[in-house]
Specification:
68 residues; two-stranded antiparallel ribbon; single chain; alpha+beta; 1 helix
Length: 68
């Protein structure tokens, strides 16, 4: 579990592997890929997806809307 979230609060954004071995950042509230600037956060390298999800969850925990 990410450091930003308590055990009672699951992270809103998580990383899931896609068919073909690429990675996506998923919004757990909608079960859809997270999107920013009109682009879905899919087809990413694992490390990039993990970094993005960590930043999104950190912003969410701080009460800031991370995606515009």
């Amino acid at each position: 579990m990410d450091d930003c979230c308590s055990e009672e609060q699951l992270p809103r954004y998580e990383v899931r592997q896609q068919p073909g071995g690429r990675w996506a950042v998923i919004d757990t509230l909608t079960s859809l890929p997270a999107a920013t600037d009109g682009r879905d956060l899919v087809g990413l390298d694992r490390q990039d997806a993990e970094d993005i999800a960590r930043e999104l969850n950190s912003s969410e925990a701080d009460g800031v809307d991370p995606l515009i």
